[in-house]
Each structure stands twice: as C-alpha cells, then as structure tokens.
C-alpha cells in the first residue's frame, strides 16, 4: 500500500490548512466557521472512508467471491472424459 501514505499526507495537509477557518476569531468569524466546519468535517469523513471503509469492502467482497467460486466449483458436474 505505498499510495496510502501519499493519500494520508495530502488529506492531513488539506485538513490542517482548513483548520484555521474552524477556529477563526474576529471579523467575519461566523462566515469562516460556516465555510470551514463542513469542509473540515467532510475531508475527515472522506479520508476515513477512503482509508478504512473502501479497503474493508474490497476485502469483504473478494472473500465472498472466492467462497462462492469454491462452492460453485464443487456443485458443477465435471465433464466426462472421452478417449
């Protein structure tokens, strides 16, 4: 999984770049919070889904596929040998 490191670094850089909008104080604080909070939370959610949920689904479906192909292989009659 060499690509996961690059994905994590890019995601964390984006999240840390948006963090000042979440903790903004002073003039236009409300509008910065309104923009920063959903972007911050959305990027965290997207990163978690991309790093944990999608690989888990891949492994799950791959396991189901392998088990079903084993079962189908046992259920199919073998062709008769001809000499």
Describe the 3D structure.
This protein is mostly helical and 83 residues long. The protein has two helices and no strands. The longest helix has 47 residues, at 29-75. The model has no long low-confidence stretch (mean pLDDT 86).
- Strand content is under 5%
How much helical structure, as a percent, in the residues?
Answer: over 70%
The first-to-last residue Cα distance is 49 Å
**Biggest beta sheet summary:** none
Average pLDDT for all residues:
86
Number of separate helices: 2
Q: How large, in whole angstroms, is the Cα Rg? A: 24 Å
Low-confidence stretches: none
Structural class: mainly alpha
Topology, number of strands: 0
Strand/helix succession? HH
**Tertiary shape:** rod-shaped
